[in-house]
Every structure is written in C-alpha cells, then in structure tokens.
Design brief:
Blueprint lengths: L3 H13 L5 E17 L2 E19 L2 E7 L5 H15 L13 E4 L12 H16 L4 E19 L4 E19 L2 E12 L9 H13 L9 E7 L1 H13 L4 H5 L2 H6 L13 E4 L20 E6 L2 E2 L6 H6 L8 E2 L8 E2 L3 E4 L6 H6 L3 E14 L2 E13 L2 E6 L3 E5 H6 L1 E4 L4 E3 L4 E3 L2 E4 L2 E4 L2 E9 L2
Parallel strand pairs: 4-6, 8-15, 14-23
Antiparallel strand pairs: 1-2, 1-5, 2-3, 5-6, 6-7, 8-24, 9-10, 9-14, 10-11, 12-13, 15-16, 16-17, 16-18, 18-24, 19-24, 20-23, 21-22
Helix pairs in contact: 3-4
C-alpha cells in the first residue's frame, strides 16, 4: 500500500482539477498503543496502525465531506465531496482569508513513545498498579494509558501543502478504597507531547493517591454553603476550560442567540487582574501545534484581557460569518471527522501573589485541588474537586471529603479577587465536543481565590 507522501501529489492534482468554491484534504498515517487495568486484571493491551484521509468541499455555503481508508481512486473521492456540497449548498460561501502555506513541520522529540516497546510500557504500569493495589484498604485500581504518533499532510485548492508530525501520551491512575460500606477514590491524570518521559517516575504519586483514597474514608464533610475558596492550578484550569472556554468557541456563540447577547466583546467579566488566553503556540504542550487542521497558523488569543471580553476562538468559516479574524482553532480528532472549533492550551495568566499571600487572610475557607468530574450548562457549572482541605486562620488544615462547587461562571469570574504567581499546566485527560473525544488539550492557571462560591457539603 502506498503511504501518504506517495499519494499526496495525486490528491493535490485531483483537488486542482475540480470545480468548487473551496476544497481541502487531509491524509494521515499513524500508530497507537493502549493499556488498561481494572484492579490487578489486565483488561486490554494492544497496538494498531492506521492510514486514511478525507476531502472536504465547499459549494454555495454547503459542505461535503468524504473520509476513506483506501488511498486509490482519489479523484472520485474529491468528486463525491463536491457532489454532496452542491446538494446542500444554497447560500454564498464564506471563509476568512488564509495565505497558502508550503511547509514541513517535524516534531521535536524528547523520548519517542514509538521506541518504547509495549512490554516495557506494561512493566512500568505494572509497577504503578502494584503500589496502588498493595496499599491497605484499597479495593481496586483503574489505569488507562494511551499514546499515538501521527503524520498528517494538509492540502487545499489554494495551493497549501503542510506536513506535520506529533506524538501524544496520556495516563490516568486511580485508586478506590473501601471500609465499613464507605467508598472513596483518588486519581491523577498526566500527559505529554512528544515525550514518553512524561509518564515515567510516578511511583511516589501512585502511593500518594492510594493513601489519599484511604484517608478520605475518615475525612469530615465540609458544611455546605458559600465559602471563600482557593483553587489549585489543576482545578482552576479545568474550570476555565470547561466553564468559560467552551463558551468562547465561535461556532457555539454564532449558533446561539442567547449566548451572542451574553458574550459581547468589550463586556466586563472580571477585575482588571484577570487575563484568560488560549494558544497552540506554547512548546511541548498537548494542545500545541503550528498549523490547525485548516492550515491556519496558530496564534495567541486573549479571550479576557484586563477583565474584559476581547476575543473568541474561530475556524475560517466562523471568522467570516462573525467578521472577525481566524485564530487557528479548527481541529479534528482524526481524518474520520471534519475540523470544528476547539480549544488548544487554555489558561489564566499569572498574577503577583504567592500562595501564602492568597490564604493568609482567610479565617475559614476551602482549598480545592485536582478534579474529579463536572457538568456545564450554558453559564452554569458544577464541578467535583479531587481533594479538598479546610483553610483556618490563614493555614491549610484538615483533609475534607470531596466537595462540589456550583455557580454561574460569569459571577464566579467577577469574584476572583486574587491570582497567584505560580502558573502550571494540566496535560491529563482530553476534551470532547461534537462526537470527537478525547482531543488532546492542556489547561492551567495559577492558584486563584474566589469569594462567595457555593460549596456542597453537609
């Protein structure tokens, strides 16, 4: 079978010979591996390879999309996408301008996961699993590991040809403890771009999470109600991604009249110290790349600057419809899907306060760390913290049972009254939207303090 480099020229010629307002294609070849444990039971292990591509055509505002694994008869696949587009297109096509690009973008690799055998990966996870499972009162563990390496060639009818490489690694470790009918769990999620080393050396973290799951069995509940809370960089990053970042994706904004009225550029959403950014330009983060899946150069995008809403995330189509600039945020999880507007690396910029400064004047509050889960509905959110502690008289005190934070994202943003100087990025997990999950993203923040946050408890 021919590889994607061999057939890219053929596909490029097929695109140029067809009549449409716009045509683009992506060819991808890659390899993935995965390992899953449930307790001491190895549930799944394997490695797979894939090769395929897609063609997307725009005619009179209508899109046609064809994906394929067979790299033969490419002109026919281009023609089929155009036929689909003509069938649905009834309006003027709109795409923000993007200069044609011809570039090869190799990845900068620290430790290539492709060079680590499946046996060695399993041995490392066995070590983590043994540490968790032998801890007293641990009933079971959950481990999910995956990696992927992918080369993609992007082509379009304007003459672009962009070849990019990336290697992605993700790991989730969790421990479940039981005693006298009580059940508690603790976990960590980690990942890395182009570096298997991101999941090495986690033996102490594995033991710590097992201990925390057991400690939670006897931890007290917080008294429910409004509290001053401090979020660590992981939970604050998840908050800014889930509760605010999705509201900044322009396809969501454009299609929702209520949200367009809320997300008005120039509106004040926080104090002047609040700055929220999304960018794929940072090195070595899982949401990073040079060009998005429409061949648009990645940019640094301020969503909130000095407390005011100043931007949102765009594809070429949403940028044209909203008369704004494209931001390089069109992404697809694989060649089986068309690109849609997605976040990359989303974070709150650091301020000047130390952690001690942030908690020093809190007589009684809650310190919430890590994430466990959550849901959002428009501007309302509910998040579960992975761990929580009381703050008493400016000091971190006893461990609490997991807490649930609930509120309106815009009220919560306005109630952020202190931002730390210790920005950290969370690279675990992945983002889901439009049936495409888990898309590699990163999110982060410094420690932040929030006034009057509703905390669920007893």
């Amino acid at each position: 079978m021919a590889d994607i480099t061999d057939v890219s020229q053929q596909l490029s010629e097929a695109i140029k010979s067809q009549d449409a307002d716009y045509i683009e294609a992506r060819l991808t070849e890659g390899e993935t591996s995965h390992i899953t444990y449930r307790g001491k039971q190895l549930e799944a292990i394997g490695r797979s390879t894939s090769i395929g591509g897609n063609v997307r055509a725009l005619v009179k505002g209508g899109w046609g999309f064809v994906c394929f694994n067979d790299l033969s008869e490419l002109p026919e696949k281009v023609a089929r996408a155009i036929k689909q587009a003509r069938f649905v297109g009834k309006e003027e096509s709109q795409l923000a301008p993007a200069e044609p690009v011809i570039e090869n973008v190799p990845s900068t690799i620290s430790e290539d996961p492709a060079n680590v055998s499946l046996t060695e990966k399993k041995q490392l996870l066995d070590e983590y699993n043994d540490i968790i499972c032998r801890y007293p009162k641990i009933q079971t563990s959950m481990i999910n590991y995956s990696d992927s390496q992918r080369t993609t060639i992007f082509l379009n009818s304007a003459g672009s040809r962009i070849e990019q490489e990336r290697r992605d690694v993700a790991l989730r470790l969790a421990a479940v403890a039981t005693s006298n009918g009580e059940v508690q769990q603790a976990g960590i999620s980690l990942g890395g771009l182009n570096d298997f080393g991101a999941v090495r050396g986690l033996h102490s973290q594995a033991e710590q999470l097992a201990k925390r799951a057991v400690d939670l069995l006897s931890a007290p509940h917080v008294k429910g109600g409004e509290h001053t809370i401090v979020l660590d960089p992981i939970l604050a990053g998840v908050f800014v991604h889930e509760a605010f970042g999705h509201l900044s994706e322009a396809d969501f904004v454009y299609e929702n009249e209520q949200l367009r009225q809320i997300m008005t550029l120039g509106k004040t959403f926080g104090e002047s110290h609040l700055n929220i950014v999304d960018t794929a330009t940072l090195p070595n983060l899982r949401g990073s790349y040079k060009y998005d899946d429409e061949g648009v150069l990645a940019t640094k995008n301020y969503l909130i600057r000095e407390g005011k809403l100043v931007g949102r995330l765009h594809s070429r189509e949403t940028a044209a419809k909203m008369k704004e600039a494209p931001t390089g945020n069109a992404r697809a999880i694989s060649y089986r899907f068309p690109p849609i507007v997605r976040m990359t690396n989303t974070y709150i910029e650091p301020g000047s306060a130390s952690f001690d400064d942030i908690i020093s004047d809190i007589k009684e509050g809650v310190y919430a760390r890590n994430w466990y889960g959550g849901v959002t509905s428009m501007e309302m959110f509910t998040f579960s913290a992975g761990e929580a502690y009381m703050i008493r008289d400016g000091k971190v005190a006893e461990l609490l049972r997991p807490v649930v934070l609930t509120g309106n994202v815009f009220d919560t943003l306005k109630n952020i009254d202190a931002i730390g100087n210790d920005l950290d990025m969370n690279q675990g997990g992945g983002c889901g939207k439009g049936g495409q999950s888990p898309l590699p993203c990163s999110n982060g923040s410094p420690h932040i303090r929030i006034r009057n946050c509703l905390v669920g408890g007893r």
